[in-house]
Amino acid sequence: MQTYILLIKLTEQGIKDIKNAPKRIELATQSLEAMGGMMIGVYAVMGEYDYVAIGEAPSDEVAMRFLLGLGALGNARTTTLKAFKKEEFVGIVKKMP
């Protein structure tokens, strides 16, 4: 599984309907799981972003499909970072010339 860190900002639509945000988060989590992924954690944060989420997906294609679907709902915009676990990073560095 590939790991992704999502930096999420609510849109004007999303903040106007903030009371339904917990349900939207649950539905997004279920959507990712239905695609074969897993949401490791979702955090409401203060600062430039409204949420930070950490998730896993079986491929970049699945992650992209999930993110496009999330954005199409119009409640949030994401910045996504592909993350590498420590063990993956060590393996990458070991293969360097």
Summarize the structure.
The model has no long low-confidence stretch (mean pLDDT 97). This protein has helices at residues 12-16, 21-34, 60-72, 86-94, and strands spanning 2-10, 38-44, 51-57, 76-83.
Mean pLDDT, to the nearest integer, reads 97
Total of DSSP H or I helical runs spanning 4+ residues: 4
What is the CATH superfamily?
Lrp/AsnC effector binding domain/regulation of amino acid metabolism (RAM) domain
CATH architecture tag: 2-Layer Sandwich
Helix content, binned percent: 40-55%
Radius of gyration: 15 Å
How do the strands of the widest beta sheet line up side by side?
2-3-1-4
Low-confidence stretches: none
| Strand-residue proportion | 25-35%
The CATH class designation is Alpha Beta
CA distance, first residue to last residue: 26 Å
Number of strands: 4
**Element order, helices and strands?**
EHHEEHEH
Number of self-contained structural domains: 1
Sheet with the most strands, sense and barrel status? 4 strands, antiparallel
Overall 3D form: elongated
Q: Which structural category do the helix and sheet elements fall into?
A: alpha+beta
Using the coordinates shown, work out and report the CATH topology: Alpha-Beta Plaits
